[in-house]
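User: Batch of two.

Assistant: Item 1 of 2:
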Amino acid sequence: MTERDRALARILAEFGTPPEWFRPPGFPTLILIILEQQISLASAKAAFARLAALASPLTPARFLSLADAELKGAGFSRQKTAYGRNLARAILNGELDLEAFDAMTDAEVKAVLVKVKGIGAWTADIYLLRALRRPDAWPAGDLALAIVVQELKGLASRPGASELEAIAEAWRPWRAVAARLLWHHYLKGRAASDA
C-alpha cells in the first residue's frame, strides 16, 4: 500500500510501523468503544478502569446489575449508561450474538451492530477494525483520521465521512492498515509538537 501512496509511505518512514491496537472481541470492548465516542481516549480509558473495578469480570448481566449512580461515578453519562444497557440487554435476550460475527461479512456485522441503539457506524467500524481485525474496516466518521487526511492531502477543509470514504477507496482492501498508519501519524505528530 505504501508503494502506491506517498503520504502513507512518508508516515511509515518518519514514525515506523504503527501499533496494531487490537482488542479482544466481546462485550467489554464494545463498552470501551461506546465510552470513547466523542471524548478523549484517556478519559474513556479512565472511566473503563473505574467500571472494571466495579464489575469484574465485566459481563452484560453484571453491567445491568450496576445502579445508574454507580455508572455515573465511574464516568458514564446518562446517554452512555443507556447505550451500555441497550447493548447488554441485546446480548442477554439473544438479539445480538457476538460470536456469530466470525461467519459474517463486514457489512453484515455493521448492519447487526447498528441496530442496537447507541451503536453507530463509527462504533461498529472501530469494533470491526480493532476487535475483529478486519483488514478493510474503515471508520470514516473518525475525527483523527479526518484531521490527518486534511493535513496530508492539503485539503482546504476537514473532510466529512463521505469524502473520507471516497479518499479511502484507493486503499482497498487494506483500509484498516491505512487507518492505523494515519492514527500513528496523528498521535506521534501531536506528541512531537507537545514536546
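Item 2 of 2:
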Amino acid sequence: MKCYTSSANIKQPHRLRALMRVVSVIGVTVSLPLILAAFAQEPDDLRPAQATETAETWDVTLARGKTRDIDFVATEGTWMSGDISRDGKWIAFDLLGHIYRMPASGGKATPLTQGSGVALNFQPRISPDGRLIAFITDRRGQYNLWVMNADGSKPRPVVSDLNIITFEPAWTPDGQHIVVRQSTNVDGRETSDGLWMYHRDGGQEVQLVKGRSGASGSDPVWPSISGDGKRLYYQVSTGARDRQPLSGAYQIRSYDFETGEILDPTTGEGGGLSSGGGVAPEISPDGRWLAFARQIPDGLLSYKGHKYGPRTALWLRDMKTGAERMLMDPIEPMVWTGNKTLGILPRYHWAADGKSILIMQGGRLRRVNATTGNVATIPFSARVHRTISEMARNEFRIEDDYVDVNFFGWPTSTADGKRLAFQAVGRIYVQDLANGRPRRLTPANFDPLEFAPAWSPDGRWLAFVTWDDGARGHLWKAPADGGPPQRLSKNPG
C-alpha cells in the first residue's frame, strides 16, 4: 500500500493486518440493511437468479455476483408488522423482507412475496374485504406502495416513482383507497410530503395532511382511519427542541375528512411536565378506543443481565370520556428517530370485532385482549430462504513492509526542536528532525492503540493515551529512547 504525500516510511506490524480485518468485519455489520437488501430468491427451484440483462433492461430484483443461499425455519422475528383479516381467519406479517400469511390461530406461514428477488417487502395491510394486501416494496428501486391479491398473486404498483418514498399503508373502510405517509427524495435529500391518499388502482392522488416545511414542522406519520371513514388519526412531531418522546415531542392528531378540522387527542410538551405524548395511533373499528404507545419514564427492560429503558407500553384512550389506561406493558422498545427501522414501532392492528389487538412483542406475534389486557402468543413457523448477493467490496492484502503514511496525528516536537513525535496507523513514532527515520516508541508486543503524544520538558519521556475495546482507555508514559511503557492511570476512562 503506497501513499506518496508524506515522507514518513513506517514498517507495519502484524497487528495492523488484524486491525484491517476487524474494520472489514465492522463494515459488514454496519451495512446489514444493505446486505439484507441483497437477498434474493426464485419462486420455483430457489436457485439464484442470473444477472444477464443489459443496462437498458436492468432488473434491480436480481441477485448479483457470486451468490450463496441461506435456508432456515424461523419461529420468532424482529420488527414484524402484522395485520388480521376482517373475518378474523388469517394473519399477514412481514419477516426478513418478505410477507407471509397464516391462520389467525398460528401455524405454518406461507410466503407471499417469494418471487420478488432481492426486493424488500414489508408493512402488509389487508383490505376490508380480505381480497387484497397493500404493502411497501422496493422492487422497482424505491420504497413504493403496491397491492397484491390475498394469495400473493398479481402484485402491481399503486405508486411507481423513484423520487417518491411511501410507508405505512392504511385502507379506507370502503376498500377503494389507501393512505400512506409520503416523502420526496431528490438528489439524495428527503423531504416529508405528509399524508396522501391513492386509489388502489392508481390515478390521481390527494394530499390530506401537509408535511413539514421546516425543522419545526409537524411531519405527520402513521395513518389510521376510523371505521366510519370520517376521521384520520396520525402522529406528529411538535418541533420540541430536545425531540424526546418523554417531553411530549410526539403527539397524536385527528383529521376530519369532511371539514378538514384537526383535533389533538393527546397534548403536553415541555421538560418533565409532559404526559409523554403519544405515538403510533390505531383507532378501534367502532371509534370508541384509540390505541397508542407511550414511554414509561422510570420503566426499564432487562436483556441478558443488562438493563435499559425507558420502557414502551401500549395504552387505550376512551374517545368519549378522555380517560386513559395502560393495556400492555411492555411492547417493543420505541425507536423514536425511526432510523433503520422504517418507523417508530412495528405496525399493529385491531381485530374487526374491536375485542383484541394483534401486535408484535419480544420476537413473537401477540394478541392482547382490549378489555382484560390478557396476552396470548400466536405461534408461527416460517421458512426463510434467501439468495445473498456478493458484497460489493474490493479485498486486498496489506503486507508487513514499509509504507508511506498519508495521515499523521498529534505531531509535537521537543523543546529544543531536535526531535519529533507523532501518531500514525495506531502507533506513536519518534524521529530525529535532521534526516532521521521514524522509530516506534513502544515495543512490538504492546497491543493497545496509541494516541496523543506529549513530550516531558526535558525531552526524556513521552506521555500518551491508549484505547482497547476490552481494557478501555489509559494514560501511559514511555522513555523516548526506547523501553517498556509505564501505565499511570489506575482506572480506565
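The two ends are 34 Å apart (CA to CA).
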